[in-house]
Amino acid sequence: MKELVVSKIREGTVIDHISAGKALLVLRILKIQPGTALTVSMAMNVPSKKMGRKDIVKVEGMFIKDEELNKIALISPNATINLIKDYVIERKFKVHPPEVVEDVLKCPNHACISNAEREPVKAKF
Question: How would you label 28-64 residue by residue, b for 16+ Cβ within 10 Å and e otherwise?
Fold first, then answer.
């Protein structure tokens, strides 16, 4: 069986151990769309000893922000972030869901004040 080898990135972010099928959602969280100038590699449904199946996203030239980490933790709480500099993992850590989620989710109650456009209130869970 042949293996497809994805090259290492010089500088950027690798998000590993993403729940299978969630890589496209991670790209949406990172605001990466077709036509981006960034080099992006994505693997979906990759065999994993720990998870059975997983997704992986590599983004050359982009370092993930805390706000994005919190969103990724909500959809894939087992994700691992690798920050790469000069082809070496400079920092590796697991995401942790935030204790409070603010202005990320929409309240399901249509009468909630956070859903009223005239009110400057953010949804907070």
Answer: ebbebeeeeeeebebeeeeeeeeeeebbbbbbbebeb
Say which residues have a Cβ less than 8 Å from residue 56's Cβ, sequence separation at least 6: 14, 15, 16, 18, 23, 41, 42, 43, 46
* Residuewise pLDDT in 10s, the chain (125 residues): 566 667 889 999 999 999 999 999 999 999 998 888 899 999 999 998 988 999 999 999 999 998 899 889 989 999 999 999 999 999 999 998 877 666 655 666 767 766 666 566 665 55
Q: Where does residue 103 rank: exposed (0-12), middle (13-18), buried (19+ CB within 10 A)? A: exposed
Has domain 11-100 been given CATH number 3.90.550.10?
Answer: no
Q: Where are the domains of the chain?
A: 11-100
